[in-house]
Amino acid sequence: MNLSTVTESERQKLIQVATQAVSKAYAPYSQFRVGAAVLTETGKIFAGCNVENASYGLSMCAERNAIANAIMGERSDTIRVRAIAIVNSQNVPCSPCGACRQVIWEFGQEAQVIFLGKQGWQDSTIEELLPEGFSL
Ligand code: THU
Fold it and tell me: How far is Cα 125 from Cα 136, in angstroms, rounded to an integer?
């Protein structure tokens, strides 16, 4: 899908920042290193990586860590996610997991999600990836 939410240079920058974040990943259990970069409505970019734990279920995905960093850098009540890019160390298809989709949706219901899909780089809206996200 061709989205015009972000410019091509913003898109490239997001992929670049997410790629750099891959090197920060703590993934000794899966060896699957992931980096994410979030673009907010103020134009700032925040990175995150996956952080695993010996108690596997406590591991945290790169996407949610990037959003947590964005919240720390801005304000949780006003922050809006315009786009998020995800990159992994194995260059294999990697779309955000269901938990991350719901968290992205919380902060940007029109967010553009840039990831490596089965056919190569893919741009989807969060609405396409998570129809009818949960809200209170
Ligand atoms: N992972 C992410 O960080 N993001 C994704 O989109 C998919 C999976 C992480 C979680 C875990 O640390 C590792 O990749 C293997 O599942």
Answer: 21
Residue of 34, 88, 116 to test ligand 1 pocket, by largest number of atoms within 8 Å of CB: 34
Q: Which domains does the chain have, with CATH numbers?
A: 3-129 (3.40.140.10)
Beta strand ranges found along 7-71 (DSSP E): 34-40, 45-49
Q: What angle do CA 116, 98, 1 make, to 5 degrees?
A: 40
Residue 5 CA to ligand 1 center (angstroms) comes to 25
DSSP strand pairing (120-125 vs 45-49): unpaired
Contact predicate 43/13, CB 8 Å:
no
Ordered DSSP codes for 59-91: -B-HHHHHHHHHHHHS-TTT--EEEEEEEETT-
Each residue of 47-79: pLDDT tens digit? 999 999 999 999 999 999 999 999 999 988 899
pTM over 0.90: yes
Q: Which protein residues touch ligand 1 with a CB less than 6 Å away?
A: 27, 30, 32, 34, 50, 52, 59, 61-63, 86, 94, 96-97, 100
